[in-house]
Amino acid sequence: MYLIPCPHCGPRAQVEFTYERTVDSVVQPDAATGVAMRALFTRANPMGLDEEIWRHSFGCRAWMVLTRHRVTHAIEAVRAVGPEALP
Amino acid sequence: MTGPSRIAPGGETLGFTFDGVAYRARAGDSLAAALLANGVGLVGRSFKYHRPRGVLSAGVEEPNALVTVGEGGRTEPNTRATDLFVYEGLVARSQNRWPSLGVDFGAAIGLFSKALPPGFYYKTFFGPAKRWLRYEWFIRRAAGLGPAPTLPDPDRFSQRAAFTDVLVVGGGPAGLTAALEAAEAGRRVILVEQDAMLGASLVRDADLPAQAWLGETVDRLHALGARILTRTTASGYWDHNFLSLTQRLAEPGAIPTHCVAQRLWHVRALQVVLAAGAIERPIAFTNNDRPGVMLSQAVRTYVRRFGVLPGCRVVIATNNDDAYRTAQALAEAGAEIVAVLDARPRPADVAERFPVFWNARPASVEGSRHHLRRVSAIVDGAERSWNADLLAVSGGFVPAAHLHMQAGGKLDWNEGAQAFTPGATPQACVTIGAAASPPASTVSAPVGHPKKSFVDFQNDVTLADIDLAWAEGYRSVEHLKRYTTLGMATDQGKTSNMLALARLAEKGRVAIPDAGLTTFRPPFTPATMGLLGGPAARHAGAHVRRIALHDSHAALNPIWQPLGYWFRPRAYPRGTETLAQASLREARSVRTGVGMADVSTLAKFEVTGPDAAAFLELVCATSVSKLAAGRGRYTFMLREDGMVFDDGTVWRVAEHRYLLTSSTGGADRMAAHISYVRNCLRPDLRVSAVNVQEHYAGIALAGPRARETLAALAGTTLPRHMSIEPGEIGGIPVWLLAASYSGERAFEIYAEATRIAPVWTALAAAVEAADGCPYGLEAMELLRIEKGHIVVGGEVDGRLTPHDLGLEKMLNKAGGFVGASGLGRPALSDRGRRELVGLEALAGTIPEGAMLVTAEGCPPEGHVTASARHILHGGSIALAHLADGRYRHAEELIATSPTRGLATRVRVVSPHFYDPAGDRYRD
């Protein structure tokens, strides 16, 4: 179980969090169909660092982006979501 | 050996039974030690061939000596006799035998072992599915270990979390040293040892000074505040140095003296030290699974720790130096060492205290099903044999790298030890002691008969089975494992994996490290279900949330139904009414008069701010901005791929204030979705979206007499259809919404949940005065099916688009909502998609969940999502998904459910069975 550094609450156990998606699979509502489907179904899935959206659902409920290594599961960085929209 | 075998007699203060026979044991005896001390050689039957088996090891790696222990709800099957300490009154039974351990009819299977090759099931059980039902009966009879207990476990199980600087796994000299070092440096330390006592190899091998060191070290650790947990196994190593520990506070089957029987620990450690030691490797030869063949270190443990002599005339087979210590221990205890078979060539100068035969490998053993009689070996190419009642074997040592592997670590090949040792790891953990550097050994090819040379004792996998799998093309060790079931028993191949790998490497003419490795998975040793369930095992796993009107319903003694987190009334039967009778009466009351229902659990969101309409036009696939204040409309929401995932209503309460409702079961999902859209997609919008699901409770009032019933109570002008007005009932401020789910004129009355009870009471009195009644979920279901209203989780199953559900005319033409891009996929407008239809039975009842086929035996073209009946005039109706459904009205099909033997002829119709134009509720 990961130890996730919530930017607001500090390190907390993974059970308090919900995984949403990778940053590269965010679909803007006005995206062209092809762009949206590529984001949903043909993601990069790198064997290394990736940016993921998580939510501290059973804590402060804030959204955050983790930079997580997909092989070692090491969390390299975390940043709160906002005030700008995700790309 | 055939009699009691204590080295020094006496001290046996505990009584226990094995297969109904009473025996005595000393305090501290493992069950295996006590059985050996009482001369019990045969303790179990093997899984597949029912071969007689005795004790092989003295630890958790034991594959043979599995027993069922305890009685009633405390029964624990498949417990290792080597990992179970005797207590007064222990009741143990052997497994996998009938009628008794000594006379086992299943052993006849062994005579037909040719008929049970690897892949037996795949090779034998062909044919139609129905025949499998017969096969399964035989398979279940023949296979399996101890049966699971059938009574609830009376014991308590707890869970506990801990944080520590250093977690040391293993209470042997290496682990104790590391723990002491860390504790003296001021670190918080937890040390776990799966045995009942600390010391590990010190208990087996140590002289007096070492024993004294053990005592001093433990005292020092306690003084420094280290937490020492014995009978505790580090069973899982997860991400970010998170480990699960299983602690036994009571022995298996025993009545606990603590308040809990077992405890599951969740430990987060900054640093983990793995000092789990090494597991001795057996040797493959003919009949190497017989009672009387034991691992060398285990023999030494029985002699030194338990004072039990497992044999009097002993042959030792080894490929390393460690086994000579066993010879020494046995000799000191009075046993005769008739031969030491050393696989290695004779060294230049060696002082032999025992009759050692160099370049000697065991070939076979003979004996009864209880005891060993004779050992044969190949010595320098010639066969020799000896009379003996014990053969102690040591085929080298396999580091217990299980946790290291679970942590994501790599293994390095150690040529000198002929074993894999822990290498690099991505987590903060280090391996020390015998697990890091096992003793040197020389492994040589086995010389016995491959068909009787067992590798995996617990699953009865022989060298010949591995050879056959190889011959049939199974090259990868992962495939070999699954095909032969090697290493897949409850011991997870602790003693067998290396033997199998060596054979595979030999077959492939590759070095062992190139043969590959299987994956090590938690738990390290089997865990009981009670432990994993923890405190939740006593109750329902999920929390129960009571709805605000729970007590008002309870007074009516309804049939309850779980829905989402809640319990809601399913129907309110009167007298001897059945569920079906009660729900039909309630539904008829709504169709002909008036009824009331609790709709409090609907998901509700209050959306406010200048950009509230813009936000809702993102979340909802229907237009929202055109809604006038005081008006509402039906809406539905899409996933990004364009599939409908929820529906509800949206109400414009004021200029910049909206109320959005959606399904009860999807409430949490919708709350998360709304938060995602708000925070991740459009944080710039000036809007607040608050979950008010449990803030408001609601009551639906429906039926042709609903308006007059409510008007008498509310005293205000009632809202027109799809309008919202503030009001007051019984002195409580409420929102009055006019919306119809049932197909009749209907209102929903919302009030603050804590103040809703008087509203219910007032409405109930008015409804009763109008000859109406409350209705439950079952009546609601009848009403909405007849009306053709879809429900999330039924017709809305995440695979249908708005078009498939007949909702396309309501889509927001401007687009821009979540899912609009997904709807643009060309394939979504292809013919052949499943679409919502209604079904009418030509005769009989349409089975819920049935498949739709054009004729028996044809492929299914859809399925029934909900089945009901015409409420007023009878006749079975249903909603269904059907390929090209909207073009197939009037077609006749069969709704069939072969597993239940049900089939009904149906006609495809519009899903709107009742008042399709909505005349009954429009103004």
Q: What's the layout of helices and strands?
A:
The complex is a heterodimer of chains A (87) and B (923).
Chain A: E1 3-6, E2 10-13, E3 18-22, H1 33-41, E4 49-55, E5 63-69, E6 75-80
Antiparallel strand pairs in A: 1-2, 3-4, 4-5, 5-6
Chain B: E1 14-18, E2 21-25, H1 31-37, E3 44-45, E4 52-53, E5 66-69, E6 76-80, E7 90-94, H2 108-111, H3 120-124, H4 129-142, E8 157-169, H5 173-184, E9 189-193, H6 201-205, H7 208-223, E10 227-230, E11 232-238, E12 242-248, E13 262-274, E14 278-280, E15 293-295, H8 296-304, E16 313-318, H9 322-332, E17 336-342, E18 356-358, E19 360-367, E20 372-379, E21 382-387, E22 390-394, E23 397-399, H10 402-406, E24 411-414, E25 419-422, E26 429-431, E27 454-456, E28 461-462, H11 463-471, H12 477-484, H13 497-508, H14 529-533, H15 550-554, E29 559-563, E30 566-571, H16 579-592, E31 595-598, E32 603-608, H17 612-619, E33 632-638, E34 644-654, E35 657-662, H18 667-681, E36 688-691, E37 696-702, H19 706-714, E38 724-729, E39 732-738, E40 746-752, H20 757-769, E41 773-774, H21 777-787, H22 820-823, E42 834-841, E43 851-853, E44 862-869, E45 876-883, E46 892-897, E47 902-909
Parallel strand pairs in B: 1-7, 8-9, 8-13, 9-10, 13-26, 15-22, 16-17, 16-22, 17-18, 31-41
Antiparallel strand pairs in B: 1-2, 3-4, 5-6, 5-7, 11-12, 12-13, 14-23, 19-20, 20-21, 24-25, 27-28, 29-30, 31-37, 32-35, 32-36, 33-34, 34-35, 37-40, 38-39, 39-40, 42-45, 42-47, 43-44, 43-46, 44-45, 46-47
Helix pairs in contact in B: 5-7, 8-9, 11-13, 16-21, 19-20
